[in-house]
Amino acid sequence: MTILPITVIVLTWNEERNIADCLRSVQDFAGEILVVDSGSTDRTVEIARGFGAVVVEHPFENYSRQRNWALQNLPLHHDWVLHLDADHRVTDKLKNTLQGIFSTALPDDLNGFMVSRRTIFMGKWIRFGGHYPVYHAVLFRKNKGYCEEKRYDQHFKVEGKIQKLHGDIVDIITDSLGRFTERHNRWSTLEAEEIAQGGVPDSDKLVQANAFGNPMQQRRFLKVLYEHMPLFVRPMFYFFIRYFLRLGFLDGRRGLIFHFLQGFWFRFLVDAKVFERKHRAPF
Question: 4-172 sits in which CATH class?
Answer without folding.
Answer: alpha beta
